[in-house]
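Open question from group meeting: does this chain pack into something compact, or does most of it stay loose? Before anyone orders reagents, we agreed to write out a predicted structure and look at it together. Recording both the input and the output here so the notebook holds the full record.
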Amino acid sequence: NEELVIASTIASVLKVAPPASVHVIADGCDDDTAAIARSYGVHVLERDPSRGKAGAIEFAVRELRLPQRFEALLIVDGDTELDDQYLERALPLLDDPAVVAVAGYARSSWRPQELSVIGRFLVAYRTRLYALMQWIKYGQTWRRTNVTPIVPGFASLYRTRILSRMDLNPPGLVIEDFNMTFEIHRKRLGVIAFQPDVFALTQDPDNLHDYYRQVKRWFLGFWQTLRRHGVWPSLFSGCLILFTLEVITASVGIIAVIVMLLLLATPTLTGGQVLQVGEFAALHAFLESYLTVPNLLLFLFLPDYLLTCIVALAMRRPSLLLYGVGFLFLRLVDATASLWTLPQAWFVHSSGRWASPSRRPASTGDSSR
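Structure tokens returned:
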């Protein structure tokens, strides 16, 4: 159900590709998504009931015989707005026969006048996150490393000849892009290319409910994919292990700090009675000696805020300096989602279906700065 944004998405695609090459899969839509898409003269296939995005991709590849008809497949989400030069810059990367996929550079759609304070806070955090993660992707997609764990599904290009060798829709996974990327690495299908001028705008959640639901789905998808593929002797697996350890360690660390701060506050909340318990009194004294305001500022807040300052300077977005004061809260939200979904990967069987976050009507004049 993307009736609020599908028009701008298709309009952006038609700037880089003819209508005959554009196929919209309306997967379980009960709004006007399909009708709006047809009004643009593109091909529209409706599926009911929904089988999820991975199922829609698999269906399109098979039923439309995409590998036989096209050399490249650009997968675009319903809320994505492509840069006018996306294909002009992306397709030459496929001139290298070793390159089998091009990872699109994600820019968060930034229209602050249409967002609440919470919405601006959430989108500002995503802006920082995208910048940091994609700066790391420079090294991950270097020809001699080729270890990026994700070709993001919002707008990425694939060489169609590899699609028949990939399991596009394995049962039980909630999202597809991690799995498609792992398939490339696991089966040694080729190299993933990336450059920042191959970019598109994406719409991020503007409320905490949708934000947390989306983050949980992303983490669950990652853990499910890791469970499915495992690790194997390769540089990719080595980097994947380090990345996984970093995610878990950072998540445990930030939650542990919050728990310790709550323990420090317990005497105030109980009128000091808990300090009469010897073991708790000793623990409280230990925590009190280390979890001081200067230490929290020096070792927790300032390192995180320094990252915000770097991104704000690089992107010329001074507003990030204001919103960045509260980004540690969203890192706590992310950490909670990460650890909550980790065990679920071993016993939650996903259908691949999910509902999009609440959409904001697309608008011309969007600014990514």
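Observations to bring back to the group:
The longest helix spans residues 235-269.
The two ends are 28 Å apart (CA to CA).
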